[in-house]
Amino acid sequence: MRLPLVLILATALLAGTAAEAQVVNIGPPPPRAEMVPPPPGPAFAWIPGHWRWQGNHWHWIRGHYRRIPRPGAVWVPGGWQPGPGPNWHWVPGHWAYP
Q: Would strands 88-91 and 94-96 be described as parallel, antiparallel, or unpaired?
């Protein structure tokens, strides 16, 4: 009985990940300038804002602080990349561990 539940949860998780992949045929506006407030503590990194495509228009997602997962980790911002053809696709941000 537990195995089917695990399969259902794994499928739901993968479906959520696939839903985040976005391809749009209209390029995003230029990034907005943001006032970066002081961090809430030394273990936080600023995650810059970005444009998200919602339905039929661009929506600005404000920047925010996120706790650094482990010492030395660096946030690599996501961004919209052109191609293939006239399309733009979203490349999510992620933590890098040098």
A: unpaired
DSSP 22-62: -EESSPPPPPPP---PPPSSTTEEEE--EEEEETTEEEEEP
User: Domain for residue 8, yes or no?
Assistant: no
Report the distance separating Cα 3 and Cα 35, nearest Å. 48
Does 62 reside within a domain? yes
The domain of 38 spans: 23-96
Specify whether the CB–CB gap between 51 and 28 falls below 8 A.
Answer: yes
> Would you say residue 41 lies in a domain?
yes
pLDDT the model gives residue 18: 39
In degrees and rounded to multiples of 5, residue 42 shows phi and psi of: -70, -15
Query: What is the count of structural domains for the chain?
Result: 1
Per-residue model confidence as pLDDT tens digits over 87-96 = 999 999 999 9
